[in-house]
Amino acid sequence: MNVGGAKKENGVKPEITNTFCNFPFSQIALKEWSKDTGIVTASPCCNSIRPSNDFDPLKLRNKITGNVDDIFHSQEMNDLRESMLKGEKHPACDVCWDREDNDNPDSFRLRSDVSFEVDVNNPTIQKVDVTFGEECNLRCRMCTPKLSNSLRKDYKYFHKNNLDVSGIEFFDFVDPEFLKDGSENEVLYWKDDTQWQSILNKDLKSFMASGGEPLLSKSFLEFIDQAPSSVHLDFHSNCTLFSKTIVEKLSRFDKITLRASIDSVYENYEYIRYPMKWKMLEKNMTRIREMSNVRVDINCVLSVLNAFDLHKLFDYFDTNIFVDLLVPEDKYISVKFLPRELKEQLIEQYTSYHSDRINLNDAINFLKKHIDVEGDSKNMLKEITLFDQARDQNYKQYLSNDLVQWITKHSKTTE
Questions:
Q1: pLDDT tens sequence across 48-98
Q2: CB within 8 Å of 279: residues ≥ 6 apart
C-alpha cells in the first residue's frame, strides 16, 4: 500500500492513502497513574497501548514530571506529529498500521473523526482521556487486579489455597501489593494532585474517562460537577451504578457518549461480570436509555466465554445501539487459543451477520490472523476453573455446548 504525507492545512482527514490521524494533534491519553508519582506514561490514544510495546508506545514511562500541556508538547509527541505529516508510519501507532494491512482495512486512525476543528499548525489539547485508577465493584474474568481492585479477592484466594496458576500469563497475583489485607479496597494507580488539577482547569471540548469504574472515582465525579455542560462527556462504565443522583448529575450535559461494558446477557453475563446480577443491570439500562442526552455504545470484550453466544447480545439491544468488539489476546480465554475448526465456525458465523451497527471486522481479522495458533484447552480450562473455584461456579452451566465439549474432551487428552 502506498501512503504519503498530509498537507499542513486545516481540514485534512485520515485516509488509507496517508498516515494522518486527528488524535496526536488534539488529544492526550493518560491511562497509567501511580498513587506516589501521578502520571506514569502517556500516549496519543488508548488504542496504541499494547503488550507489544510494553503499554508505553512513546517510551515516556517514568520520564514525566510536568503537567498535561508539557506532555502534549513533549519531543516525543512532536516527533509523532511530524512523522504523520511526512507520510511515515510511526511505530507508536503499529496497532493501526497492522489493522490497515488486511483485506478489509479498518483502524482507529481511519475512524478518528472528531467533533471539533483540528489545527495541524497549532496542535492544542481539546480532549483528554483519563483512567481514574482501578477502583471497581466487579470482578470480570478478562480483567486483571491492576484494573479492578475487587478482582484481588480472587487472586488472594488462589494464593491462600495454593492453587496452581503456573503457565497462565497475566496472573500477576504474586504482586505483594495485591496480596495485602484490604488490598481490594485500595487504589494504587491514581493520584489527585497538581497534574489532575491542570486537567480539571483546562477548557476542553471533550473528556473521556475509564477505570476501574469511573462512577466510583471521586475525581471523576468532581469533573462532572465542575465541567461546563458543553463538554462532550465520553466514558466507559459497567452501567451498574446509575442511581437517581448520578442521573441528575449527568442530565445537565448537552451530549454524553456512554461506552457500556456489556459482553453478554442473562446467566452468561453474570458468569463473566461477577458478581453483578442481570436483572439489576437491566434496571440500570432502562434508566440510562430514558436519558435524552445519552448515546449508548456497547463495548463487548470478545473471549471464548461469549464468542459463541454473541447473537443473543446483538438481538437483545435495539437498532439504536452500536456494538463494538474488543479483542484481547493476553489470556488463555482468548479466542486465538480455540482449535482451527472452532475459529472457522466463528468466522463463518460473524461474516454472515450483516448489520451497520455491529462492528465485527476486528474479530474476523483477529481470528484469521491466528487461525493456525494451536488450541490450548489445558490452560484455557485451568484459567476458567480457577475462577470457578473462587466463586463456587461451574463453567458447564454457563458456556456454550460447542466450547464445553471441546475443552472437556481435549483437556483430558493432554493430562
A1: 998 888 899 999 998 998 999 999 999 999 999 999 999 999 999 999 998
A2: none
Say yes or no to pLDDT of 292 above 90: yes
H runs (alpha helix) in 241-339: 244-250, 266-272, 278-289, 310-316
What are 311-369's pLDDT values in tens digits? 999 999 877 788 888 888 778 999 999 999 999 999 999 999 888 888 898 899 899 99
Strand 206-210 vs strand 232-237: parallel, antiparallel, or unpaired? parallel
pLDDT at 77: 97
- What number of residues does the chain have? 415
Answer yes or no: is pLDDT of 3 > 60: no
Torsion angles phi and psi, residue 386, rounded to 5: -60, -50
**209-220 b/e (C-beta count within 10 Å ≥ 16 → b):** bbbbbbbbbebb
Cβ-proximal residues to 389 (8 Å cutoff; 6+ apart), any chain? 157, 161, 163
SS (H, E, C) 107-170: CCCCCCCCCCCCCCCCCCCCEEEEECCCCCCCCCCCCCCCCCHHHHHHHHHHHHCCCCCCCCCC
* Cβ contact 132:220 at 8 Å: yes
341 backbone dihedrals φ, ψ, rounded to 5°: -65, -35
Kindly state the helix (H) or strand (E) to which residue 367 belongs, with its residue range. Answer: helix 361-369
Q: Residue 323: helix, strand or coil by DSSP? A: strand
Cβ 260 vs Cβ 296: under 8 Å: yes
User: How much is the mean pLDDT over the chain?
Assistant: 91
E-assigned strand segments in 215-335: 232-237, 256-261, 294-301, 322-326
